[in-house]
């Protein structure tokens, strides 16, 4: 399992409630794709959302977003925690 951060841009005007609802939809289907979403952050001023997940591959979080609500990330990064 890898750890990934995906970035959704151009979401100006999205409310915290709307992001929370989309995140809940992700959580409802994540297991089907072997993904575990760990955190979700919102920068409302920039119109960006950041999702941290553990997944079997870099494309798995995107597959969850596609099935759950269709809001696909603009970028996804594989991360490593600094010891």
Would you write up a description of this structure?
The chain has one domain (2-79): 2-Layer Sandwich (Alpha-Beta Plaits). The chain has 83 residues and is an alpha+beta fold. The chain has a 4-stranded antiparallel sheet with strand order 2-3-1-4, with helices on one face. It is globular, with a radius of gyration of 12 Å. A hairpin with a 4-residue loop joins strand 2 and strand 3. It contains 2 helices and 4 strands; from the N terminus they run βαββαβ. The mean pLDDT is 96.
Summarize the structure.
This protein is of the alpha+beta class and about 80 residues long. The chain has two helices and four strands, in the order βαββαβ. α1 crosses α2 (about 60-70).
Describe the structure using short key phrases.
83 residues; alpha+beta; 4-stranded antiparallel β-sheet; 2 helices
What is the CA-based Rg, rounded?
12 Å
Q: How far is the first residue's CA from the last residue's CA?
A: 18 Å
CATH class: Alpha Beta
Order of helices and strands: EHEEHE
The number of distinct β-strands equals: 4
Overall domain count? 1
Biggest β-sheet: count, sense, barrel? 4 strands, antiparallel
User: Ranges with pLDDT <50 over ≥5 residues?
Assistant: none
User: Order of strands side by side in the largest beta sheet?
Assistant: 2-3-1-4
Q: Hey, roughly how much beta strand do the residues contain?
A: 25-35%
Helix content: 25-40%
Q: What is the mean predicted local confidence, pLDDT? A: 96
Gross morphology is globular
Count up the helices: 2
State the CATH architecture: 2-Layer Sandwich
The fourth-level CATH homologous superfamily is ORF SCO4226, nickel-binding ferredoxin-like monomer
* Structural class by helix and strand composition: alpha+beta
